[in-house]
Automatic annotation (TrEMBL):
Recorded GO MF terms: electron transfer activity; FMN binding; hydrolase activity; metal ion binding; oxidoreductase activity, acting on NAD(P)H
Protein name, per record: MBL fold metallo-hydrolase
Family in the record: In the N-terminal section; belongs to the zinc metallo-hydrolase group 3 family.
Pfam families tied to this protein: Flavodoxin_1, ODP
Taxonomic path: Bacteria, Bacillati, Bacillota, Clostridia, Eubacteriales
Keyword Cytoplasm: no
Location of the Flavodoxin-like domain: 249-387
Length: 390
C-alpha cells in the first residue's frame, strides 16, 4: 500500500483493481486502477478518489503521507462513481475540506450523494493557489460526461485529465514505460474506442488546450501515467479524434448454421485479393467491446446476419446498437447474410449502416440458404470491389 511520488510532493494514492473483468459492459482482461493524486503543499489536495470498495487501500496510501483530516481540497474532475465513490468517506474524515468541481460536477455530486458539502464551483480557466503550486481547471464537457474537467499544475507541467488518456491496466508499475508501448497503446485504443469515440470534436478541443500547455506528464484516472510515450500518444489521439482510419477491413457476423460465415469468408478472400488486411470477428466468440478497437482503425466494416424471425439476429442488432452509440464516422459499410424465405436480416443490417451515416456503396449480399460456388464467387468479387474503394 505504498504511495508513489510522481512529482515532488505529488503522490499517486489510488487503488488497483486486479480482479476487474467487466466494467459497465466492457471486458477488462487486464483489470484496472482508479488513480487518485495527493498534492502536499500549504494546502493539501486530493484529486479524485477510487471505487468505494478500494477506499481502505487509498486511505492506507494517503495515511503514509499525511493525516487525511488535513485535506483542504477535494477536487472532483468527474462524478462517475469509479472516481467519486470514495468522496463521501474522505469528507467524513476531512469535514472541513472544500469540494472543488465544475458546475455540472456539483449538480452530479448532489444527485449521487445528497450531501451538503462545502463546494467551490470552478469555471474553465479558474485557478486555485495551494502555496507553491497552482491548480488550473479546464472544462472538457462530454469527455466523457457533461461534468468532466481536467486539472493542470503548471509548476509541475503535470496534467490530471481524469478519463482522457486512460487505459484499463492493473500493474505494479505506475508509468507507461514500465508496461511498454505495445500494451499501453492497445489498452488506450480499446478505452478510446469503447468510451471516448463519440466525442471526437470535444477531444480535438481538449487536445488544442493541451498543445498550448507545457506538459511533461499526463496522469489519467485509469491505468498507467504517461511520461515516456507522450510524443507517441498525442498524435494517435488526434487521429482517433478525427476518425482517421487505415486501409483495413473488419468483418463482423453471426450465424446459426454456418452459411453467413461462408459468405464472410468469400468477402474476406475478395478483400485480400484487393490487398486489404482483414480482421474476422464472430459475435459468438468475440465480445463487442473487444471488436471496437478494430472498428476504431478499419475503413471498411462489413456486417453479416442470417434472417431470424423476419429480422437480423439479436447479437448483430446488439452490436450495431453499441456501434451506433459510439458514432464512428467516415466508414464504408457492407451488409450480408443468408436467409430462407424473407431475407430481412441483411436488409436490416444495411439500413442500420446507412442510418449511421456510413457510405454503403454496394448492394447487400443476401443468399438463400447454403451458398453455391457461383454465389460465393460473386461474394468474393463484391469483396474485391469494396477493397478497391478503400
Ligand atoms: C429459428 C429460425 C427462424 C428463421 N426465420 C427466418 C425468417 O423469418 N425469414 C427467413 O428468410 N429465414 C428464416 N430462417 C432461415 C435462415 O435464415 C436460414 O436457414 C439461413 O440460411 C441461416 O443462415 P446461417 O447458416 O448463417 O445461420 C430461420 C431459421 C431459423 C433456424
Amino acid at each position: 500500500m505504498r504511495p508513489v511520488e510522481i512529482k515532488p510532493n505529488v503522490y499517486w494514492v489510488g487503488g488497483i483493481d486486479w480482479d476487474l473483468r467487466y466494467f459497465h459492459g466492457y471486458l477488462t482482461p487486464r483489470g484496472s486502477t482508479y488513480n487518485a493524486y495527493l498534492i502536499v503543499d500549504d494546502k493539501i489536495t486530493l484529486v479524485d478518489t477510487v471505487k468505494h470498495y478500494l477506499f481502505d487501500e487509498m486511505l492506507g496510501r494517503i495515511k503514509a503521507v499525511v493525516d487525511p483530516s488535513r485535506i483542504d481540497y477535494m477536487v472532483v474532475n468527474h462524478v462517475e462513481m469509479d472516481h467519486s465513490g470514495s468522496v463521501p468517506k474522505i469528507m467524513e474524515l476531512a469535514p472541513g475540506a472544500t469540494v472543488i468541481t465544475s458546475p455540472q460536477g456539483k449538480k452530479g455530486l448532489e444527485r449521487h450523494y445528497k450531501k451538503d458539502w462545502n463546494f467551490q464551483v470552478v469555471n474553465s480557466g479558474d485557478e486555485v493557489s495551494l502555496g507553491s503550486r497552482t491548480l488550473k481547471f479546464v472544462h472538457t464537457p462530454m469527455v466523457h460526461w457533461p461534468d468532466s474537467m481536467v486539472t493542470y499544475i503548471p509548476e509541475e507541467k503535470l496534467l490530471l485529465p481524469n478519463d482522457a488518456f486512460g487505459q484499463h491496466i492493473a500493474a505494479t508499475g505506475r508509468f507507461d514505460d514500465e508496461v511498454g508501448w505495445e500494451v499501453v497503446h492497445e489498452e488506450a485504443a480499446k478505452y478510446y474506442a469503447n468510451i471516448v469515440l463519440p466525442y471526437g470534436d470535444q477531444v480535438n478541443k481538449a487536445l488544442d488546450v493541451v498543445s498550448r500547455l507545457p506538459v511533461e506528464m499526463i496522469a489519467p484516472s485509469h491505468g498507467v501515467i504517461w511520461r515516456s510515450y507522450l510524443d507517441r500518444i498525442l498524435p494517435v489521439y488526434r487521429r482517433w479524434a478525427n476518425h482517421e482510419t487505415e486501409r483495413k477491413a473488419l468483418i463482423v457476423y453471426d450465424t446459426m448454421w454456418g452459411s453467413t460465415k461462408k459468405i464472410a469468408q468469400a468477402l474476406q478472400e475478395g478483400l485480400e485479393e484487393a490487398g486489404i488486411p482483414v480482421t474476422m470477428r464472430c459475435l459468438q466468440t468475440s465480445h463487442m467491446s473487444e471488436i471496437m478497437p478494430d472498428v476504431l482503425v478499419s475503413k471498411a466494416i462489413l456486417v453479416g446476419s442470417p434472417t431470424l424471425n423476419n429480422g437480423m439476429l439479436p447479437s448483430v442488432s446488439g452490436f450495431l446498437t453499441y456501434v451506433r452509440g459510439l458514432r464512428p464516422k467516415k466508414r464504408l459499410g457492407l451488409a450480408f447474410g443468408s436467409y430462407g424465405w424473407g431475407g430481412q436480416g441483411a436488409k436490416e443490417v444495411k439500413a442500420a449502416l446507412e442510418a449511421m451515416g456510413w457510405e454503403v456503396p454496394l448492394d447487400v449480399v443476401n443468399i438463400q440458404y447454403i451458398p453455391n460456388g457461383d454465389e460465393l464467387a460473386a461474394a468474393r468479387e463484391t469483396g474485391r470491389r469494396l477493397g478497391e474503394m478503400i
